[in-house]
Write a structure and sequence with these properties.
By secondary structure, the chain is an alpha/beta fold. 56% of the residues lie in helices and 13% in strands.
């Protein structure tokens, strides 16, 4: 069963999620509180393992930032889902850069939140409407400013071709293709959209319109 921690300074939100988890039965709430510091202190005192998934409010009332909250939770060993109204793209960008798995709107049905928890717990990407809207609303976030060559290399590589084949297709040296992918990864990190794996690069290529969305599903197989 998925172990979930709820961190939100609105008790009513936490109670609603707790009730949903109890009803659905596939997740159990091991902690419910208003700050990340409170959760980490509880963990230390109880000497229990990290929650599998932490459902975290984007903005807490203790003055902490989304970057430090997500960073601390990820470093502690949990996956993080941001539970927010999703109308602050800059903060969503910070959350993603810090390692959050995705965002679920507070206007979503409880079942949708629980489905997101289940997906993230299984290591699946959380590509939902709220996340996409927040990303598309922040042009600095969406635009990694890839060169034409970098886009060509990314498109072929993310579609599943080995880098050697990509180089041959484009008529460049293997070292050149490899350097292009390195620069692509660096540029995505610079705009808060890290892509350390080939699957991550596939997601970025789909997000930026370099590949069709069906390629996302094909490439993940």
């Amino acid at each position: 069963m998925t172990r979930v921690a709820l961190i939100d300074d609105h008790e009513s939100v936490r109670l609603g999620l707790e009730a949903g988890c109890a009803r659905e039965g596939s997740a159990t709430v091991v902690f419910s509180g208003s700050t990340v510091a409170e959760y980490l202190s509880w963990r230390q005192e109880q000497r229990v393992r990290p929650a599998d998934v932490v459902v975290l409010d984007l903005t807490l009332g203790d003055g902490s930032t989304v970057t430090e909250n997500v960073t601390r939770l990820v470093a502690d060993g949990s996956s993080v889902i941001i539970h927010s109204v999703a109308d602050r793209p800059a903060s969503v960008r910070e959350a993603l850069a810090a390692g959050a798995a995705g965002i679920v709107s507070k206007s979503s049905r409880i079942d949708d939140v629980l489905h997101a928890v289940s997906s993230v717990a299984q290591g699946e990407p959380l590509n939902n409407v709220e996340w996409a809207s927040a990303v598309e609303g922040d042009r600095a976030f969406a635009d990694a400013q890839l060169s034409a060559r970098e886009r060509d290399v990314l498109r072929l590589y993310a579609a599943g071709l080995p880098l050697k084949v990509v180089a041959e297709r484009l008529g460049v040296a293997y070292s050149t293709a490899k350097e292009n992918i390195t620069r692509v990864r660096t540029k995505y990190v610079d705009v808060g959209r890290p892509a350390p794996t080939k699957i991550d690069l596939l997601h970025r290529a789909v997000e930026d319109g370099l590949l069709d969305r069906h390629a996302d599903a094909e490439g993940a197989r």
